Amino acid sequence: MIVLKLPSYEEPPKGTHPPLSFPDYASTRLRAPSQPLVVLPHRLTEVTGPLFGDERIRPGDNDLTRQHDGEPLGQRIIVHGRVLDSDGRPVPNTLVEVWQPNAAGRYRHVNDNWPAPIDPNFTGGGRVLTDANGHYQFTTIKPGAYPWRNHPNAWRPSHIHFSLFGRAFTQRLITQMYFPGDPLFFQDPVFNSIPDPKARERLISVYDHEVTTPEWALGFRFDIVLRGPAATPFEEPRP
Amino acid sequence: MTATTPGPAGSARLGLTPSQTVGPFLHIGLPWPDGPYVVPEGTPGAIRITGQVIDGAGEPVPDAIVETWQADPDGRFAHPDDPRGAQPPALDGFRGFGRCPTDAQGRYEILTVKPGPLPAPEGGMEAPHLNVSVFSRGLLDRLVTRIYFPDEAEANAADPVLNAVPESRRGTLVATPDGAGLRFDIRMQGENETVFFAV
User: Fold this and answer.
1) Which entry of A67, A105, A182, B11 is 20 to 30 Å from A157 by CA?
2) Whole-number Å distance between alpha carbons of B109 and A84
């Protein structure tokens, strides 16, 4: 028999991730499974995952303001941070994918038809790899808020979508980064679907004056924490 | 931001970043032109897996993305955390990973090869399978499922994951022959709901 010693990944603490069924977010009603999830203990397919490198990055992918002939309208910002696991270890050389609407809150997408202007100089998609310390950085414009039809007078707070792979299937994460002080949080069921208010706050970026570039762009910091190793058994202190 | 939570014996762990939905506009950020190709077109033994993502009202889901991850035909991964050692793929151009957004009819398609069986840490073998993640508007977290192969009855019968699923629902995890390829529909809710896993 082959003895396999696999890396372990913690179970996410309760309240960290939103439940699949969250009726305040109307689209969950027909899409959340009705049967309970079956626990899948981690084996080889779960502790491995795709490891992407430079082959997935094209020139300009890290600067969403430089993907067209002209400059997009709006507030230029630099978003940066680190991708870590919950033990604080950096996740190096990992692919980070982002997408967002333009400064007026409109996505460059055939299904986004609300009457805000399209910006011909902004597509809204980007990609970066983290460096050896797990650090990433990209330049973009601050996305606008936009209305949707989830509930009366519903507006999504400004946000940037983030997709992360980490190093294993267990670490795959897609999330949204928000901006500090947004007045729309109170009525947003996507943000408020996260049960633990402290976990919710972890999705709010922090204004970072160190990264703000004089006469150029405002800086925001957004660190991302992926599942780390399962906790080692607690040792009772000796008497 | 990265707040620490006190752990046992004064250790501090960082709080995990919560999941959020991909929303309806994932196409700006996620699809790749070569995404559906786990192996290049023309690879010997390549299998086309197609299917539909269907919601609880029986309607196709046109704004989902389906991702797959699997071992190569020898049952190996080009990954340092495989304790048998990372092994370059047995096939030229094999990526292990596939991703395909659904079209207006909720359909996705992946071109791949059957992976080898895998030794399980508790002993025994896992039958050939693909791990699947589904993301869409209305999913606040991904759905995880597995695709098994219909011509692997014996291996499937011994598979520890299939055996942990109630027998009446196991069939939702096995693809069905469909012309020259395989079909694997993903029913998010309701009748014949696909088995989804907590990983």
Assistant:
1) A67
2) 33
Q: Where are the domains of chain A?
A: 58-226
Residue B1 has pLDDT above 60, yes or no: no
pLDDT digits (tens, 9 = 90+) for B14-31: 999 999 999 999 999 999
DSSP conformation class of B37:
B
Hey, what are A181's tokens?
């002080």
Residue B4 lies in a domain: no
- Which residue, among B104, B175, B178, B177, has the nearest Cα to B186 in the 3D structure? B175
Does domain A58-226 fall under CATH 1.10.10.10? My reply is: no
Asked whether A203 and A28 are in contact (CB, 8 A), the reply is no
Could you give the ipTM of this predicted complex?
Answer: 0.95
Cβ atoms of B136 and B149 closer than 8 Å: no
Per-residue pLDDT reduced to its tens digit, A60-102: 999 999 999 999 999 999 999 999 999 999 999 999 999 999 9
Domain presence at residue B141: yes
Whole-number Å distance between alpha carbons of B96 and B13: 32
Beta-bridge partners for B98: B68
Taking a C-beta distance cutoff of 8 angstroms, is the pair A21, A186 a contact?
A: no
Closest Cα in chain B, distance from residue A117 (Å): 17
Residue-level pLDDT at B9: 44
pLDDT of residue B2: 54
| CA pair distance A208, A218, nearest whole angstrom | 8
Element (H, E) at B157: helix B153-157
Within an 8 Å CB–CB cutoff, is residue B180 touching chain A? no
Rg (CA), chain B: 18
- Return d(Cα A72, Cα A125) in angstroms, integer: 13
In this structure, is the dihedral angle defined by the CA atoms of residues A197, A202, A208 and A213, taken in order, positive or negative?
negative
Cα dist. B51→A43, A219, B21, B66, B184 in Å?
Answer: 26, 43, 22, 10, 5
What is the token pair recorded at A139?
Answer: 């330049």
- Among candidates B24, B82, B193 on the partner chain, residue whose Cβ is nearest the Cβ of A33: B193
- Of residues A129, A133, A61, the one with CA closest to residue A93: A129
Domain assignment of residue B133, given as a range: 19-187
Q: How many domains would you assign to chain B?
A: 1
pLDDT at B8 over 50: no
Q: What is the CATH number of the domain that holds B106?
A: 2.60.130.10
